[in-house]
Amino acid sequence: MNLFRKNCLSCLILIFTFFITISNGATPIAPAGRSYSCSVINDNKLYVFGGDPFGIIGTPQTIYLDISLIGTPNPWYLLSDIPISVSAANTVFNGNNTVFLIFFNTVYAYNISNNQWYPTGSNGIVPQTRTQATAVIDKSGKIWYFGGTNGTTRIYFNDINSFDTSTYTWSFGSTLNAPTSRFSMVSIMLPNGEILYIGGVDGSTRSHINMAQAIDSLIHCHN
Ligand SMILES: *[C@@H]1O[C@H](CO)[C@@H](O)[C@H](O)[C@H]1NC(C)=O
Ligand SMILES: *[C@@H]1O[C@H](CO)[C@@H](O)[C@H](O)[C@H]1NC(C)=O
Ligand SMILES: *[C@@H]1O[C@H](CO)[C@@H](O)[C@H](O)[C@H]1NC(C)=O
């Protein structure tokens, strides 16, 4: 092999390595402990978004852990940063490579396949800005965003708002038979279209809620 060919080969190997690094796109890290982050699971990977690392409010970090390897030496990996630092945001996974993250009243989308964030629009009736709300996504790709608080102005919400992920349009749901205002609860979308809200802090009494309440997303689907 002459010198020229040798150099070409090294060059190709370099380019190849470069592409592998880019396509994997993830750097191993030892993340700081944190609260107020949010997460989704897909394909044996736990993705964690934002949160408050100890002593700091908000981070733009996206990290993941391969949960099939738990129990073996297994690093967290750093992925692309969220476009902004978030704390107490919400994430939902559409089952098809896209994670939607809602922070205050803005929705960001993350493509798991190419590790890229992209903005969504905000058409329709955009909900009032809030934190510590909760979100679920239904089979049709609608996100249901409920409750939360605006800490600054001490407003506590019990309105349900939906965001259509195919048109990026917000709609106001309804407060008909809605649970009382609350924040910091969790929610689960049941197969029959009901959304179950569990726990949280009551907006008027500030007491911790120890029961679950359901809302029917099919009834609350006003446009
Ligand atoms: C998943 O997303 C891809 C690319 O955005 C799209 O072409 C495909 O139709 C989607 N599949 C389903 C089942 O929604
Ligand atoms: C996500 O990335 C994959 C791979 O680049 C691409 O094929 C797909 O269309 C992207 N999906 C969306 C919704 O942009
Ligand atoms: C509370 O409302 C004010 C005024 O609308 C807004 O500037 C602020 O960002 C809100 N805070 C949260 C946490 O939503």
TrEMBL record:
Pfam families: Kelch_KLHDC2_KLHL20_DRC7
Cellular component annotations (GO), alphabetically ordered: cell cortex of cell tip
Domain of life: Eukaryota
Keywords tagged on the record: Signal
Gene3D superfamilies associated with the record: Kelch-type beta propeller
GO biological processes: establishment or maintenance of bipolar cell polarity
Protein name per the record: Uncharacterized protein
Organism: Gigaspora rosea
Organismal lineage: Eukaryota, Fungi, Fungi incertae sedis, Mucoromycota, Glomeromycotina
